[in-house]
Amino acid sequence: MHGPIDPDLARQSKLPQNSILFQTFPFRIDVFGFCGMELNPASRAARLAPTSVGDINSSGLDCSHELRTLFHIKCANVFDRNRKSHCPGVYADEGFARGEQADIRTGKTERMKINEERLIGLFLDLCRINAPALQERRCVDWTRQYLEQIGLEVWEDEAGSRIGGNANNLIAKLPGNLPGAPRIYLSAHFDTVEPTEGLTIIERDGVFYSDGSTILGADDKAGMAPAIEAVQTILESGEPHGDVYLLLTCAEEIGLKGAEVLPIQDLEIDFGYVLDTGPPVGTFVTRTATHDKLHIEIIGRPAHAGKHPEEGINAIEVAARAIHGMRLGRIGPETTANLGIIQGGSATNVVCPSVTIHAEARSTNVEELNLQVDHMIQRFEQAASETGAVAKITHERHYDAYQIADDTQVVQVAQRASRALGLEPTLRTTLGGSDANVFNVRGVPSIVVATGMDKIHTHEEYVSREDLIKTAELALQIIREAAQEKRHVL
Ligand SMILES: [Zn+2]
């Protein structure tokens, strides 16, 4: 089909060895371009001037004069009209190749764009594969095959056995071709909240919904499809770029479990982007909260409610005493707290012997968070001691906050990419968590990128065609902007 040119042929024809072997394309090439963004219009015209390339053997191909010119400028992107896709462009002059496409007849140039229909198709295919947390195997297998066909290096870690799921995190690498450029990642998660079984996707006015009986699962397929499409486009464009990894995780929705065990530190990544929050596209989460969990068990004493109620200690009453007057909900601009689950009791004629409560608190300010958690613990302990009950409390730091400064590479690249697409970037603080929390703790500066998905975790969840495309364009531009940076070697 196509590939590096035969070395003997390259020598004979003085072609760079990594040129595409055009002569074996089994189809007519009728649109093509070149790489060279940094050419100004004058030099562009000069470079585009038709030039003979000597002894290139172009038999078997409807080789036009212009195509020969491509050889002369040593770089090419080839667009196959029949397949509506780009063939991998290969170039020799790293110095100026930038993945721009030119119509040689007109001299008009344009950078390679994402393939919109392919992106939408990928998004819909991904949504249709049921993938609740810990049961992502089918989706992982399907995606693995897709990424291998693109030509990426793909492997899995050992997440499944470590977190009790049937699938692992999937890691794919597009090796860089630009020495010194940062190594970046794009990340999204496979799993969705339920229910998604029997999903029927409906498109209304360019917006995708479920039929209302399930969720859509755009969280996080609206991040995953654009990330994959961006990597595929950059690969096909032949543009220079650093190493680009896709980190596709499992079990995010049940507590960032896949990311927790993904060996990101082994990949020596410089920074990266988690595509996993709501619109508008152009928003980036650079500051998040620390999130604590509390598990409280109140142990009272059972007694027959009709015969000897005075001998019992009612755990429900103890809990009520603790909760009454407890500071909950929005504690301040940076802090929230919530009691989410309460369980206990066995029968109406038994004084309730025990109650368990699951609670959480979050804050972007760790001191405030500690104060809030202490307050909640103290309320339960006090109520227990006043009533003769016992309160067993476990406190767990679920994940740590991160705060990424505005002048860091990870933020600068995102902002430039956003502006290049005409989207004014917004930096957001959120109390929600994502895999970026984990990757930051592992030492890889990471921010969350907004996608178009909205009303997530509900049956009204949706994402528009336009926002999927915008997200993919942004991811592609992030790869391009990162390639303009230098790697900070530690
Ligand atoms: Zn998500």
Which features characterize this protein?
490 residues; alpha+beta; Aminopeptidase; Alpha-Beta Plaits; 3 domains; five-stranded antiparallel beta sheet; 21 strands; elongated; disordered N terminus; binds zinc ion
Please render the helix and strand layout as text:
Elements: H1 7-13, E1 31-33, H2 41-48, H3 65-73, E2 75-80, E3 85-91, E4 100-102, E5 109-111, H4 116-128, H5 137-150, E6 153-156, H6 159-163, E7 170-174, E8 184-189, E9 201-204, E10 207-210, H7 218-237, E11 244-249, H8 257-261, E12 271-277, E13 283-288, E14 290-299, H9 315-323, E15 329-332, E16 335-344, E17 354-363, H10 366-387, E18 390-399, H11 409-420, E19 426-430, H12 435-441, E20 446-450, E21 462-464, H13 465-482
Parallel strand pairs: 8-11, 8-12, 12-20, 13-19
Antiparallel strand pairs: 1-2, 2-3, 4-5, 6-7, 7-11, 9-10, 10-21, 13-20, 14-17, 14-18, 15-16, 16-17
Bound molecules: zinc ion (ZN).
Residues 189, 219-220, 252, 276 line the site of zinc ion.
For the sheet with most strands, the description reads: 8 strands, mixed
> What bound compounds does this protein have?
zinc ion
Structural class: alpha+beta
CATH architecture of the largest domain: 3-Layer(aba) Sandwich
Q: In angstroms, what separates the terminal alpha carbons?
A: 42 Å
Q: What fold name stands as the CATH topology of the largest domain?
A: Aminopeptidase
**Low-pLDDT segments, ≥5 res:** 1-7, 9-107
Write down the overall mean pLDDT: 82
Assign an overall shape.
elongated
CATH domain class of the largest domain: Alpha Beta
Q: What percent of residues adopt helix (DSSP H or I)?
A: 25-40%
CATH superfamily of the largest domain: Zn peptidases
Rg over C-alpha atoms, rounded to the nearest angstrom: 28 Å
SS strand fraction:
15-25%
The total of beta strands comes to 21
Number of helices: 13
Task: List the domain count as a whole number.
Answer: 3
| Strand line-up in the sheet with most strands | 6-7-11-8-12-20-13-19
